[in-house]
Amino acid sequence: MASVTSKTPMLRAAAARGYAAHAQAAAASRGSAEVQTTTLPNKLVVASADPNAPVSRISIVFRAGSRNETADSLGAAHVLRAAGGLSTKTATTFGITRNIQQAGGSLTTTADRELVSYSVAVTKDQLEVGLKYLEATATGQVFKPWELAELTPVIRNELARLPAEVQAVEALHKAAFRDGLGNSVFCPDYLVGKHSSETMQHYFSANCTTNRASVAGVGVDHQLLVGFAQSLALESGAGSENKSSFNTGELRLDRACTRAAVAVGAQAVGWNSLKEAMAFWVLQRAAGVGPSTKRGANNGALTKALTGVNSSALYNGYTDNGLFGFIVSGEAKHAGKAVEAGVKALKSLSVSDADVARGKALALLAVGEITENQSGLHHQLGEESALLGQVYKKSDLVAAVNAVTTGDVQAAARKVASSKLAIGAVGNLSHVPHLCDLH
């Protein structure tokens, strides 16, 4: 079923370039599935792969996630996500929805701490329609005041349905990074409905520029995608990088309930240091990310210590910084004991050759799942091209995982053990120790 959802000047020469005819010709040819990238003179990065995929998936991605918000624009990235598909300079909400439905496609908007992504998925014969409304949605927003007002119950509903575990991870980021990466992916409750049209236009113009953008596609010819990217009416400008430093701290959100969710994190590294980041990625899997089989056990080096609760090792890597730790949730009494045990395990975290071998096997499985799945590959292309200005091929990622040694993972574990901690906790916290009581 076709959909226009929000998760997270016009196409001026569409007819002249003949997108639909070009797409059909590309589909008939035997194109290379290898990743291709082009950086335009205006710094916009174009990345594509697998032109013969049966469905065309194209994204316009901006470095406009919540880390870029200021005190005057907190929650703007969440509003951008919710506003995906609303009226633009050239199309109404009804027109966008109706035409995407008629094309049998989907148009989605997603947002996280670093990125806001506008994506369309259509069959190749409907590519021209998909690109037309993707461009309108991603570059022609008008943020009509009455349409923004209609988003208020939508956003409130999202906030009301957030799992406690997600709230704990958000609180952990606030405690660890304060501003920048500390800004929540979700709009603060007290600011819901407070974002004016002017605020949103200013946020978009400051962060959605060619220097901070990429166009990524799977199932589309690369040169066609380059032509589409060249047509986008976007301002240039680098904007602010909003670097975030790690801090120790805690944020506790008490609730009237019987359960607790707690996220504990130490400083890690970002993806701008691929070798070190891969070591943390392997360490996360060696430490335990949940059972691999139905009703299986959490048998990682860290999660063995976290009994009586749901638990997982945590690695959130960003461009320039990261968090490594764990998250637990369960009955309040058990959660408190698990936090104490988990912190002790973090401070003495050790991994064996067997742990690393298991972690590398799981990491290689994740690489395969991402790069061999069209949706996952599309997401990877958009994320890496926007954040890093390049895209890692599957062979690059496999080689990076295989190059990780036990010594590399042990060095990452030592970095975690020597780092100060940050904590985010939500729920009945009567049994959850304070940071100052954890050693």
Q: List the quaternary state of the chains.
A: single chain
Structural class: alpha+beta
Order of helices and strands: EHHEEEHHEEHHHHHEHEEHEEHHHHHE
Query: Strand order within the widest sheet?
Result: 1-5-6-4-7-3-2
Question: Which key features would you list for this structure?
Answer:
alpha+beta, five-stranded mixed sheet, 2 domains, 18% strand, Cytochrome Bc1 Complex, Chain A, domain 1
What does this protein structure show overall?
The protein folds into 2 domains: 196 residues, Cytochrome Bc1 Complex, Chain A, domain 1; 189 residues, Cytochrome Bc1 Complex, Chain A, domain 1 (2-Layer Sandwich). It is 41% helix and 18% strand. Strands 1-5-6-4-7-3-2 form a 7-stranded mixed sheet, sandwiched between helices. It has a 5-stranded mixed sheet with strand order 8-12-9-11-10. Helix 11 packs across helix 13, helix 11 packs across helix 16 and helix 13 packs antiparallel against helix 15. The N terminus is likely disordered.
